[in-house]
């Protein structure tokens, strides 16, 4: 089989060290000779993982902090606002989705543990997983989708950061929203020139720390902020739709009363996947760990910590701020509905400071992919600076075209993320498990069957959910039930009203 350049240079690709005795977690079953019926490639045995390759990598707690720094995000506050608005049905939907996302994150980690013996030095580990499961077409498809997701997510995060700054500035920034992404891009661009997660884990510590402080402040703020919501709420800050002055609150209410619960449920589905879907980054992070076999523990601790912060804020928001969330859009967050004061200002400022970490982390797989294709060395050079700056400017232009993170995230959650976050992990895990660890069936038959049933449910339901999200959001956009209006370069004031 013709090998890729990245595989030829790896010191652990020789099949001479492969386990052929049919035992061990990464052994080869000689009854399976091809990864898939792709017609042009033969399956080759996997080498045993050589963990000494990652001796200088991240430990479990560094990886936990890195993932937590990504998860404790501003967009998660938008999910909480939508859940409060939709009630029990929204809570049920969000709970199921969160559970499935954690499960598939564990699956993608198991997949990498199966294939990493051959691909430890691969710059696109998610694509390598697809290759071992289904062949070269799957690798190409996954790598392309990962690149699209990285580009779109970073664009959305840029607009999230601008939204956060808009909330922080209040009425002083009214009509000036479209300038904010430009300012943020200028500040964040130099950080884009940094390396891989192995070089960036300190930013993860910063993201986890600031995120924790923000959620603690919001927990307190939602309780103590007990002003009269009907008399004093500034709906321009809550809704960010069509009109943005308190004098037009009646029009805002009339518009939003025609928004169906179905639109908000679609927004929950889309935004939850983007907010918690670390899967496109996870294999690269796991590759850089000293003990990649500990990734399941890393995922469980990271998500448990995130939910331990988010759930109390959701509860107190429902109890104390429910009336203020009666009229929401996908851009509405728990932070935005609080009365401006020291707590909300400090929380917004901390989120603003942590945004650089998220911007850099979400773009990293895309940068590595483009640099490999353009033969740009992994060392710091002027070529890296030029490429990453150009990509970031393109993301800024897209953001100025769709200046609402809720719309970007919801549509992304109906197009690309269902594949990377839900379908691909389930499909690849079933395939790799059957090829490389068939002996596990005899050892734990009940668990094997349960995993199979859950994976197939995910595979079947995911495309149905994606179609519903796109249909509902498309109808909502055309009927004016979302915040999408015009691009910034057509009307900078109306674009974010």
TrEMBL record:
Gene Ontology terms: cellular component: vacuolar membrane
Membrane listed as a keyword: yes
Localization annotation: Membrane
Bias (Polar residues): 8-32
GO MF, one example: L-amino acid transmembrane transporter activity
Transmembrane domains' residue ranges: 60-82, 88-108, 141-162, 174-196, 203-224, 261-282, 303-321, 341-360, 381-399, 405-432, 453-478
Coiled-coil regions listed: none
Pfam family membership, one: Aa_trans
Membrane topology: Multi-pass membrane protein
Swiss-Prot/TrEMBL keywords: Membrane, Transmembrane, Transmembrane helix
Domain Amino acid transporter transmembrane: 59-468
Keyword Repeat: no
Annotated region described as Disordered, given as residue ranges: 1-54
Stated name of the protein: Amino acid transporter transmembrane domain-containing protein
């Amino acid at each position: 089989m013709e090998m890729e350049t990245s595989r030829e240079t790896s010191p652990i690709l020789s099949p001479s060290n492969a386990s052929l005795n049919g035992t061990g977690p990464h052994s080869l079953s000689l009854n399976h000779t091809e990864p898939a019926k792709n017609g042009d490639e033969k399956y080759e045995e996997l080498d045993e993982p050589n963990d000494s390759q990652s001796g200088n990598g991240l430990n479990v707690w560094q990886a936990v902090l890195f993932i937590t720094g990504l998860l404790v995000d501003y967009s998660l506050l938008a999910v909480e606002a939508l859940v409060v608005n939709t009630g029990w049905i929204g809570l049920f939907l969000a709970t199921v989705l969160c559970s499935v996302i954690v499960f598939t994150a564990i699956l993608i980690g198991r997949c990498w543990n199966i294939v990493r013996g051959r691909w430890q030095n691969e710059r696109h580990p998610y694509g390598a997983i697809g290759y071992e499961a289904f062949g070269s077409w799957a690798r190409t498809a996954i790598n392309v989708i990962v690149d699209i997701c990285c580009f779109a997510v970073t664009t959305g995060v840029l607009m999230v950061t601008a939204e956060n700054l808009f909330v922080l500035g209040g009425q002083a920034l009214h009509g000036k929203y479209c300038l904010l992404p430009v300012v943020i891009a200028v500040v964040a661009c130099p950080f884009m020139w940094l390396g891989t997660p192995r070089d960036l884990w300190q930013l993860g510590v910063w993201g986890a720390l600031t995120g924790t402080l923000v959620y603690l402040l919001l927990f307190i703020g939602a309780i103590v902020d007990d002003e009269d919501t009907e008399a004093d709420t500034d709906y321009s800050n809550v809704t960010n739709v069509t009109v943005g002055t308190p004098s037009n609150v009646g029009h805002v209410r009339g518009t939003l009363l025609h928004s169906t619960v179905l639109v908000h449920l679609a927004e929950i589905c889309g935004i939850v996947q983007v907010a918690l879907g670390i899967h496109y980054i996870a294999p690269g992070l796991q590759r850089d760990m000293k003990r990649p076999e500990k990734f399941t523990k890393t995922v469980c601790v990271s998500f448990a910590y995130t939910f331990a912060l988010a759930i109390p804020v959701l509860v107190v928001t429902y109890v104390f701020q429910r009336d203020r969330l009666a009229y929401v859009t996908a851009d509405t967050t728990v932070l935005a509905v609080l009365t401006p004061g020291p707590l909300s200002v400090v929380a917004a400022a901390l989120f603003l400071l942590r945004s650089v970490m998220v911007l850099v982390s979400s773009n990293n797989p895309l940068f590595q992919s483009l640099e490999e294709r353009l033969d740009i060395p992994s060392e710091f050079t002027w070529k890296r600076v030029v490429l990453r700056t150009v990509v970031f400017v393109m993301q800024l232009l897209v953001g100025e075209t769709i200046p609402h993170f809720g719309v970007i995230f919801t549509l992304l959650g109906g197009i690309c993320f269902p594949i990377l976050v839900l379908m691909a992990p389930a499909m690849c895990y079933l395939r790799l498990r059957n090829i490389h660890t068939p002996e596990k069936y005899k050892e734990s038959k009940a668990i094997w069957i349960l995993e199979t049933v859950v994976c197939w449910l995910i595979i079947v339901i995911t495309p149905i959910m994606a179609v519903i999200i796109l249909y509902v959001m498309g109808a909502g956009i055309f009927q004016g039930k979302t915040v999408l209006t015009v691009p910034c370069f057509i009307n900078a004031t109306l674009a974010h009203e």
